[in-house]
Structure prediction request, 497 residues.
Amino acid sequence: MLLLTFVLASPAGALAARQSVSIPRQTTVTLTFIENDRYPGRLTNMASALRQLQAFFDVADYTKGSEYSFIRDVLDLEIKPKAAYIDTPLGYGYGINGAAVLLNKLALNAAFWDVDGLEKPLFQRVSYDPLRFDRTYDVYGVNLRRPNTDFVWRINPDYDGTRPRATLAFDPATSTATILLDYDDEIPPPSRKLSLSEKGQILAANLKAIIGDRRLGVSVVPIASPADTVDVNARIQVPVASAWKGGAMVYFFENIDRALWTSYPIQYWNLRNVLRVPKEYQSAFVQHNQILRWVYIAGVFSGNHEAGDVIDYVWHNSKWKTAQNAVTAFNQWSREVVGITPQSGMHKWLAGMTENPSIVDHSLDKRVFTDNGRVLPFDNTYSPHDLALFYYHLATTGKQQGYYNSVIELLSTKTDILSMLKGYSSGSGIVVASKVGYFAPTSPDAFGHDVNVDGGLLTLPNGEQYAIAAMAFDAVPLQADVLTSIFRVLLNVYMSS
Prediction:
């Protein structure tokens, strides 16, 4: 499990104050190795790298404009035996990158309030090679094993506080590494007593400063007060990849008889063998396993064929069967019930029962997606605001109609599929139910572009809820900064004490 805590100075007034002051602030980041990742020697090398990182922090001058290299400045250009590194079954020094991962996590989560009223990262990431599919490192993975890979960072040139002081520790009993960083805010943090409108202005200003002119849109909808929604580039169309399947889960539960999806617990939906199911549920399992397994695989594991099968099933077994086809039915419900705009939606989905070129929503035939004047043939696009509306609908209508808990159970399940919402909120106390979708540039569906989309419902520790969507087109690296900024502001400004 990854643990993350924010320890901040108490809010001391509105953001109107602009005179620079030094207010002590502290951020703690931790990294706990899951049991299956505790390979022989890995933790020993991680602890050795932490000692070298501590030695770097002890003498670093943090000169503005200077860039710092993990390979050059922390490891002194090589893995030296005198630093107590050892051989492992996966190679000499394996585990060193854990310290770089913790540094990456620190760079994304240590932030200060500057005199211009913006909360900014204390350290700016310059370059690094992401490492994916490591369960311990999750979204923070850093690859140091490829040739010419490194983690390079610098101190924010806008920071004028006291020199940051770091204390690093490694607890072998819990396999947990920690960095505690002391530094300063330069103005008092915003008060939690501000109005939602004022808080929204602060969040929007932070997001605009991060995003600039990149094609990245964000929508944050307070469930208790949708009029105070924060939208930044939230009306642009972005390829949705698999993120639409979160909406498909809401669609299924809202339109299919409750007796079917309550016939046996969700924990058994992905099973194939009836003998693994308690006897009291075996009759229902035999009758409904096919469709409920499709729902589980589409919602949890992002199955493409199963997603097509689910919307086809709803089309045949609900009032939406009057629509022309399964794709059109899903879009019609999305527009008429959820409230998305006509510009967003599925044009076609060539997988499962919808894998037929004639199954098309012709209302979107003329929708065109362009990038720098070039038309790209993405079939399925949504705006961030429209994608967030599915989760607003879940938090409101879903509760009223009694299917909220079931959808939350499905979309809260964490898998090896990297979700930015789940990953960057891990350990913060925020509970996330979400569905991610992405195209790597090498994917045949990406046409050479980098796409990452995440939409979901956030529940803060005090119970406040926010629907959210963040959609990036050729701006994926910025999503980490965007989401960590949102989480900090929600926890430390929005959330009532």
